[in-house]
Amino acid sequence: MPAETLISVEEYLSTSYRPDCDYVDGHLEERNLGEWDHADLQAAIVAHFRARARKWGIRAVVEQRVQVKPGRFRVPDVCVVVGDPGEQVLTRPPFLCIEVLSPQDRMSRVEQRVDDYLAMGVPYVWVFDPETRKVFAATATSGLYEVMTGVLRTENPAIEIPLSEIFE
Asked: Fewest Cβ atoms nearer than 10 Å: which of 15, 64, 156, 163?
């Protein structure tokens, strides 16, 4: 079996992948997406944020490259920033990174992504499972936990999202 070729950060940043890939220490990691449940939930989440963007002072986008550390880039399903990020590839922590699970996703791999976001300084990370309709949240102080209250919350800005408004 031939050895896997490492890719430089420069090559990764100058190449378009369809769909976009994560870049982890010289290796490309495919992201699981492309199925209806994933796409529909991703669209519902970003639409919810965009409808309230002015009120909350935020911007929400899909599949934004985030440099979580020098040799590592992640592409969250939804990325929320406060104000204008002022850069094309985010190098400063977003306010919130959201992952939507696909049936092929392994929780251990999702936890690595969550850990990367938190280590970068992202204050809030949410993980949605469209199949089970479970949602998990993570902060640096709480770690990853299942949201049992039916409402997702952040502070600074104060955001409250009833899960019933996302899982319609």
From this structure: 156
Cβ-contact 144, 135 below 8 angstroms: no
Provide the pLDDT for residue 43: 93
Is-contact 114 120, C-beta < 8 A?
Answer: no
Distances (CA, A) of 123 to 68, 89, 97, 106, 155: 13, 18, 9, 23, 9
pTM across the whole model? 0.89
**Residue 124 CA: distances (Å) to CA of 1, 81, 98:** 41, 11, 9
- Mean pLDDT per 10-residue section of the chain, whose length is 168 residues: 70 81 82 79 95 96 95 95 95 97 84 96 96 95 95 95 92
Structure tokens at 64: 């934004």
- Sorted by where each starts, the structural domains of the chain and their CATH numbers stand as 33-166 (3.90.1570.10)
- Closest by CA to 121, choosing from 92, 99, 98, is 92
Please choose, from the candidates 9, 29, 27, 4, the residue with its C-alpha nearest in 3D space to the C-alpha of residue 19: 29
**DSSP-assigned letter for residue 90:** B
- Pull the structure tokens for residue 30: 């495919």
35's CB contacts (< 8 A; 6+ apart) are: 102, 103
